[in-house]
Design goal:
44% of the residues lie in helices and 19% in strands. The protein is of the alpha/beta class. The strands form 5 sheets. The protein has a 9-stranded mixed β-sheet with strand order 17-29-28-27-18-19-20-21-22, sandwiched between helices. The chain has an 8-stranded mixed β-sheet with strand order 5-4-1-6-7-8-10-9, sandwiched between helices. A 6-stranded parallel β-sheet has the order 13-12-11-14-15-16, with helices on both faces. β23 and β24 form a beta hairpin. Bound molecules: adenosine-5'-diphosphate-glucose. Adenosine-5'-diphosphate-glucose binds next to β11, β12 and α14.
């Protein structure tokens, strides 16, 4: 057994499809480089490929079971069974009538049927169960594409430490489009279950990040999302092809060579423009037909001199939009041939069927122009396949700027397929492009296609996934352990002198849109007063809040210590006066900083300034998240310059930037609070942000330090949110009496 861990590939379809042939079953191999690329890794690691076999069992069928068992034995392909109605509603429904059009920027084509969503959820659960059945420690799970976007999250829930990767083959839409999607949040959460999330291009990755921020409010870095339970690494990994497989056909396969010669003869004297697509509305076939008509209109000299070979594989034929498209294309082909054709010349040769690999390769090799102009495409492998087959580098690639491939293939002629006139003009020019130019461009493309092969792509994905998973394992080891509440309560009960340091926002109450709205519920005030009333116990609320807020909410709560503005001021339980922690605290600096903040408020609708006695805060929680984030970075860097030689610091908080004195530090408060108690043998500190880390660091090692939320911390323990913190404090108040 290999030591590198098995690869478990999961995709909607397997590389094989079952077809009924009378009483028996036939296995068909689907074309495509993915299987070629992954088979060696599967073999090496004794891995498995899980997917739907392309039919649903109607009952016991020994012949079918026999075929499937053979797949598993010989290739490691394991069937995930889906009941027929689930398969249909999931695949034709939510996946292909909601996700597919929306992700390709056709929001008006989307159909949303709740039954489709239910089937999508059900199918993803069935895939999860199938994975869990085979999953072993050390395995790497690689989930593919838009049909299985919930799967990473479902797997993560069931196996928190599994290594899970996801690759999206189709584009990720702009956030304005993505937000239209019913069930958008569930999908984003599902994806964040992955350790590695990879897209075809950087633009897709950026769109994903923007959606995450706008819809879930989750900030991310260019290369990762620090999720609640774990991090998700983000990558742009454009898929490639297996170019040598194509060349082998040209060099070794008789059928390919014969077909190639035949095309040469048949189209002698004509420039061949070749288009190969699935018959899908994202591929822009009607636009291509109309562009070809424009070309013949504007350049009569080309009539009888060019031919457009359009190969279109029928696809998703049960969906009405595809049926409409089929009619539209047939009509356009008929019109063009009727208008321009002669007994000797047919302008458009239309083949509406899948063709054999040998036939396809012969066409790629014979074509003068590869005409690849989808309206939107994740990558588009046809563009790369055409280039791979241009051994003599004499052809030209006409490529849509909306195909993912455009990001890598700058030497192609990039066009906007919606601009039919513009595209016809470029075509007219490139048909007669001098050989020198064609060779130079094609040779550069050729090199690129040979460098970023599907093998290089899959190896990179697998090694990044391995890296992301081991980083995660390391982080899990570093994360504070969950607070053992029973032990804590026992220690609290036993102790003779107790000190509690409790942060407020994000610790005792969740964040609200404005600081004012985060007022304490009555139950919290009463809990704090119960704690405050315990003998030999100093209960301290230690917050970044102003003394006005703390006094308004807790001024009358008996027995409570209050620390305001991160340690600038303190109020003892018995007294009503606040003490400054330093004899005098400067405030003149505010006059210099305020105009800078005001400038940012003017630029950022929804943001505002909070003025405290010894600090200024710029809040942007209600501003556009993307814009707010960007401006916060800019504000901090402006302030860093302004404050360089002073004792002030600009600090990023939760959706805020705060300027305060560097020495206002929660850690400084420990000795002041403890001074009044005879023998402290129990210390608890609970907090969620950077200012609380000062406290954790300065407390002795045996203190109960608790970080609220995920991520690393100097605290020994963690709790997940304010609700848990309040429950723990309730328990302490209960056991102490
Ligand atoms: P697809 O939408 O399937 O894949 P594409 O990249 O164009 O799109 O690949 C199509 C494949 O089918 C090619 O290998 C091509 O050779 C073959 N093919 C097309 N027409 C054919 C015909 N008439 N007969 C025989 N074979 C034909 C999704 C995304 C793409 C992304 C791929 C890979 O939608 O954007 O490039 O995944 O990630």
């Amino acid at each position: 057994m290999s030591t590198e861990g098995r690869l478990i590939v999961v995709s909607n379809r397997l590389p094989f499809t079952l077809r009924r042939a009378g009483e028996a079953w036939r296995t068909e191999r689907s074309s495509g480089g993915l299987a070629s690329a992954l088979d060696p890794v599967l073999k090496r690691t004794r891995g498995l490929w899980l997917g739907w076999p392309g039919d649903s069992p109607a009952g016991e069928d020994a012949a079918r079971a026999e075929q499937l068992a053979g797949w598993q034995r010989k290739h490691g392909y394991a069937a995930v069974e889906l009941p027929a109605d689930v398969a249909r509603n999931f695949y034709e429904g939510y996946a292909n009538q909601t996700l597919w059009p929306l992700f390709h920027n056709f929001p008006t084509n989307i159909e949303f049927d709740p039954a489709g969503w239910t089937a999508y959820v059900e199918a993803n659960h069935r895939f999860r169960d199938a994975v869990l059945e085979v999953l072993q420690p050390g395995d790497l799970v690689w989930v593919h594409d838009y049909q299985l976007m919930l799967l990473p999250g479902l797997l993560r829930e069931a196996r928190p430490s599994a290594a899970i990767g996801f690759f999206l083959h189709i584009p990720f839409p702009a956030s304005e489009v993505f937000r239209i999607l019913p069930r958008r949040t569930e999908l984003l959460r599902g994806l964040l279950g992955a350790d590695l999330l990879a897209f075809q291009t950087h633009a897709d990755l950026q769109h994903f990040r923007a959606s995450l921020l706008r819809i879930c409010g989750t900030e991310s870095r260019m290369d990762r999302v620090k999720g609640e339970a774990h991090h998700t690494r983000l990558e742009a990994l454009p898929i490639g092809i297996a170019p040598d497989e194509f060349l082998r056909f040209i060099e070794k396969d008789r059928a390919t060579q014969q077909a190639f010669e035949e095309h040469r003869r048949r189209f002698e004297g004509l420039k061949i423009l070749l288009a190969v697509d699935r018959l899908d509305y994202t591929k822009g076939i009607p636009h291509r037909m109309r562009t070809f008509r424009r070309l013949l209109e504007r350049a009569p000299r080309l009539r009888g001199k060019v031919v457009l070979l359009q190969v279109a594989v029928p696809s998703r034929e049960r969906i009405p939009l595809y049926e409409d498209l089929r009619h539209e294309v047939s009509e356009l082909v008929g019109e063009i041939n009727g208008e321009f054709g002669t007994p000797q010349w047919t302008p458009v040769v239309y083949m509406r069927r899948g063709i054999a690999r040998s036939e396809l390769v012969a066409l790629y090799a014979a074509a003068d122009v590869g005409w690849v102009t989808p309206l939107r495409d994740g990558m588009n492998l046809v563009a790369k396949e055409y280039v791979a087959c241009q051994r003599r580098a004499e052809g030209v690639l006409l490529l849509s700027e909306f195909a993912g491939a455009a990001a890598e293939m700058g030497e192609a002629f990039l066009v906007n397929p919606y601009d039919e006139d513009g595209t016809a003009e470029v075509l007219e020019r490139i048909i007669d492009l001098p050989l020198e130019d064609r060779r130079e461009r094609m040779a550069a493309l050729h090199r690129r296609v040979h460098r970023n092969t599907v093998f290089a792509w899959s190896e990179r994905f697998v090694s990044l996934l391995r890296e992301a998973a081991s980083d995660q394992a390391r982080r899990n080891g570093e994360q504070p352990a969950r607070l053992p509440v029973v032990d804590l309560a026992a220690a609290f009960r036993r102790a003779r002198g107790r000190v509690l340091f409790l942060d407020y926002d994000g610790t005792l109450v969740p964040f609200a849109n404005t600081p004012r709205e985060a007022s304490p519920p009555p139950a919290l005030v009463s809990l704090l007063s119960r704690l405050g009333g315990l003998p030999d116990t100093a209960t301290t609320l230690i917050s970044g809040r102003s003394r006005t807020d703390l006094e308004a909410w807790f001024g009358d709560t008996p027995g409570l210590w209050l620390v305001a503005e991160h340690g600038a001021m303190i109020r003892r339980p018995a007294g009503t006066d606040w003490e400054l922690t330093r004899p005098s605290i400067p405030v003149a600096w505010k006059a210099r900083v305020r105009p800078v903040f005001e400038h940012f408020v003017d630029r950022t609708p929804g943001s505002f300034i909070e003025e405290k006695e010894y600090a200024l805060v710029w809040h942007y929680r209600m501003a556009d998240p993307l814009f707010g984030e960007w401006l916060a970075n800019e504000l901090v860097s402006n302030l860093e310059e302004l404050l360089a030689e002073t004792e002030l610091r600009a600090i990023r908080g939760q959706k805020s930037v705060e300027v305060r004195l560097v020495w206002t530090n929660k850690g400084e408060m420990i000795s002041r609070v403890e001074a009044g108690l005879p023998a402290v043998d129990f210390r608890l500190a609970v907090g969620d942000d950077r200012t609380d880390e000062d406290l954790f660091e300065r407390l002795p090692n045996d203190a109960w330090t608790v970080h609220v939320g995920q991520g690393t911390s100097h605290a020994r323990y963690c709790l997940s949110g304010p609700r848990d913190v309040v429950a723990v404090l309730d328990e302490l108040a209960r056991v102490a009496v």
